[in-house]
Amino acid sequence: ERLLELLETEFQSDDEEDDDDDDNEASENAERSYHAVSQIREWVIQRYINRPLLLESHQNRKFHIRTYVLAVGDLRVYVYRHMLALFAPHPYAASASKLDDQRAHLTNTCLQAKSAGFDESAAVCLFWELDLPRHKLEHIFDQLCRILADTFTAVSSESTSFQTWSNCLEQFGFDFIIDEDCRVYLLEANAYPDFKQTGDQLKFVVEGFMDASVAMAATKFLLDDCLDEQTTAVASTACADLLEVFAHKNERRW
Asked: How far apart are CA 161 and CA 183, in angstroms?
């Protein structure tokens, strides 16, 4: 209901501005046209996951999964297996009376880091070390890979908004949330991922992703005769944690 009220207020404001322009239609046609174009907006509304997965070992705090993704050429997509779980600072409660407590709902560490007493070790941990049975972690990861495959299947056919280059690679940060039944939902895709969210203690995750990205570039874009056996072996080891989930022409790998 609160979301509906906010949207109604926003659209009502737009309507009032349009009405003011209509009053001057005869003399301000050009200005009104410019104003109308400038008011074009795009809205993305996501269903709020009211019952996210909560872990007693982390004080029932809400969290999301940060996944680093590498897109290569035109187009193969790899997910980096070493993912992060980013936690909100306050315990979560599915209650309307708790909606104003942003620190129970917002899981971004960039917001928390500015607060006094910020504890990085409590805010960020490794996904594969969450207090869940291994089969549930694998189930979550499997869903995540399928969502990534579906996402790149959708955008790879939209050449006007998503373009690839055969000799380039691009890094993304994808965020996912999990509900109490271990169902995974895509939150957002970041073309400019904030690697600082990983924090100092787990920076080896980002370092490993960077090493894997460089190794992938070497194996994909350098001629075979430029790589000796030792270099090839090092590159293969660095790429071991990159799992292919999508290939161009809708050749899904997951």
From this structure: 29
